[in-house]
Amino acid sequence: MKHRMHLAIIFAVVAMIGMVVFLALYLDEKRRVQETYRKQFVACLNHTSEALDSYLTADADYEFRYRNIVSNMSAADSFCFLLENLTQEQKIQVNELCTVFVKYPEQMQKKERLTACKEAVDDLAQNLDKGFEEAGQIVAEIDKMGK
User: Fold this and answer.
1) Checking phi first, is residue 142 left (phi over 0); if not, alpha (psi -120 to 50) or beta?
2) Helix or strand holding residue 61 (H, E)
3) To the nearest 10°, the Cα dihedral for 74, 43, 129, 117?
4) Where would I find the H helices in 58-128?
5) 0.90 cut: is pTM over it?
6) How far from 92 is each of 22, 86, 111, 121, CA to CA, in Å?
7) How do residues 21-75 score in pLDDT, each as one tens digit?
8) Nearest CA among 95, 63, 96 for reference residue 79
9) From CA 73, how far away is CA 11, in angstroms rounded?
């Protein structure tokens, strides 16, 4: 009986150590995945910024360049929702910015608005809170009942 009790205690200790090790491995992997998502989010924002700059300095082929902006912003929006360190309001701001690019291209293709978007996207890529505020201002300026 005493031998079985010692064996049960040893088994319980080994099981607890195993659980702690697997928990630590899980948390480490979760952290690394979040870092990867963040890198991808920032990369997509940087591509969006480059596409905006390309659109602003271009002399022709605006439709292709605008589609490139929409594509990169959509990818950034997708990665945004995978990040755990952003609040729900911040995720919504990025989503709304992406949505206005898709739904209101006539309003978004104005040079002043695209310049403001570039500033907002650059601030978002640098993880600055003012980027979310700038994105919110851009979305608020859109006439959602118009073109």
Assistant:
1) beta
2) none
3) -50
4) 62-80, 88-103, 105-108, 111-125
5) no
6) 34, 10, 24, 14
7) 999 999 999 999 999 999 999 999 999 999 999 999 988 889 999 999 999 999 9
8) 95
9) 53
C-alpha 45/C-alpha 74 separation (Å) is 10
Residue reference for tokens 């949505």 = 99
User: Residue 139 and residue 136: Cα distance in Å, rounded?
Assistant: 5
Tokens for 81, please give them. 């929702």
Neighbours of 40 (CB within 10 A): 16
pLDDT tens, position by position, 94-134: 999 999 999 999 988 889 999 999 999 999 999 888 999 99
Q: How far apart are CA 117 and CA 51, in angstroms?
A: 11
